[in-house]
Amino acid sequence: MYPLALAALATFIVDQASKWAVVFDLDLRHRLVIDVAPPYLRFVMGWNEGVNFGLLAGHPGAMRWVLVGLALVICLWVARFSLRDGRVQMEIAGGALIGGALGNVFDRLVHGAVADFLNMSCCGIANPYAFNLADVAVFGGAAALVLWGRAHKTP
Prior knowledge:
Blueprint: H1 3-25, H2 28-31, E1 33-37, E2 41-48, H3 60-85, H4 88-111, E3 114-119, H5 133-152
Antiparallel strand pairs: 1-2, 2-3
């Protein structure tokens, strides 16, 4: 099986398991805040109907489908890009990005919004935003694709 598919599947499973465990098993959806190791780590319930930091959340019905469609198109492009490169690390990075994106797509389809719950602050700076493991995978996968993709190019 392709490393891309395995990475995407593993990322999707870890993301959905973490959301289920925190939002439903720990009942964050009703408790709203759980201090884990404040201020470094808190679980703070957020249903994001937009994109990063809640941008474009003004029209949740229409934006839900636009964002689902956009995410699926991006997933197809990332899969093609990662597979054409031919290196395993590019497939794993692409798979992480795809698995995270599909985790958030799943949330939009099932819940109508993305479940965000991780809130981290440090060093006197209070972070008002929450995120999830899918967001971490999307960001990390995209960063790895850019860095490794540029490193592979010869001048």
